[in-house]
Amino acid sequence: MNRREFVTLFGAAAAGTTIKSKSAFAVMVPAPWQIGPFVRPANGRPIIKPNPRAVFADPNTHRVSHWEFAHTFNPAAIAWKNKLYVLFRAEGKHGNDIGGYTSRVGLAESSNGVDFTELPHPMVYPAPGKWEKYEWPGGCEDPRVVQSEDGSFVLTFTMWNHKVARLGVATSRNLTHWTHHGPVFREAKQGRFANVWSKSGSIVTRKAGNQIVAAKIHGRYWMYWHTDRQILLAHSEDLLSWSPVLDGRGTPRLVLPKNKPGYFDSWLTEPGPPALLTENGIVLFYNGMSDGLIKIGPHIPAYQYSAGQALFSGDNPAELLHRPTQPFFWPQEPWEKTGQYKPGTTFIEGLAWFKDKWFLFYGGADTVVGMAVAK
What we know:
Layout: H1 3-9, E1 18-19, E2 27-28, E3 56-58, E4 63-65, E5 71-80, E6 83-91, E7 103-110, E8 117-118, H2 132-135, E9 139-147, E10 153-160, E11 165-172, E12 178-183, E13 199-203, E14 205-208, E15 211-214, E16 216-217, E17 220-227, E18 230-236, E19 242-244, E20 254-256, E21 268-271, E22 276-278, E23 281-289, E24 305-312, E25 320-322, H3 334-337, E26 346-354, E27 357-364, E28 368-374
Parallel strand pairs: 14-22
Antiparallel strand pairs: 1-2, 3-4, 5-6, 6-7, 7-8, 9-10, 10-11, 11-12, 13-17, 14-15, 16-17, 17-18, 18-19, 18-20, 21-23, 22-23, 23-24, 24-25, 26-27, 27-28
């Protein structure tokens, strides 16, 4: 087993046989409910990089925009009509530090799951009109995509105006033409959550043949989302308007809090790709960050993002059943450890079933798009 295979092969677990290696730590066999292991391509290279030559006519500035000049990262993914599609966040030529650019969502496609071709123009981007005040000048960030039962696509993304991040939603029939529907919480509880910082909408899905579609539980759709560095829950009747699940005190119910010091997710937990309803329960892929040296598992530096899996009840999406102590994926390649986000990231956002394999997509150091595959 080579180095790349080892570091992606065995992730978090609560019980099992210890695997010995030349590494500085030993890890456990993954729990049976976990998905994976995920292995990086043998070439160890990102699949999408910034493209300084790509331009389009920006409707806000009425100028030619080099829309993916600086960074391409944090991708969504879905398989459709025998192709694999990746919707990725791109930042243009002008900006200052993380969050200071204008983001747009581009699209790349692949017939073989190896070679990806980018379309020349962004698919989702800020434009004058009803939603401009929510997404200009920061733009449209960090997409996640699911397919509904009627075959249409639903995209959750962050609307960023450089003041407040709001979780937004858009729909499409073909992945290239999208209709914006605005912030998902703007009507919930008489507008109480319209201005609450929200992002990272992970809608619960199920595998139906070769498709991954939004799943109903007790007649409702469910979505894990992020605020205040932790994961909460919301529900919807139509995949467009969402309402946060509240606890007995009337505040949003926390379902995956930050962990204790010494764990990979002690500083932050944030949803990753759309969650997956399985026979064992709901598998939530999520991103974690530590606030110091990790004492359990791989020696990941403080404030570096790594990825975990948590199991929730398939009958009650708020009930946490299993939370492993170690990440299943974390930065290893040089381009995952250095870039716009200097501590390094493997920030997972896309999961697709394609050619009888799971494809996991992630942002490397907020600069490029990476991919790993589970057979």
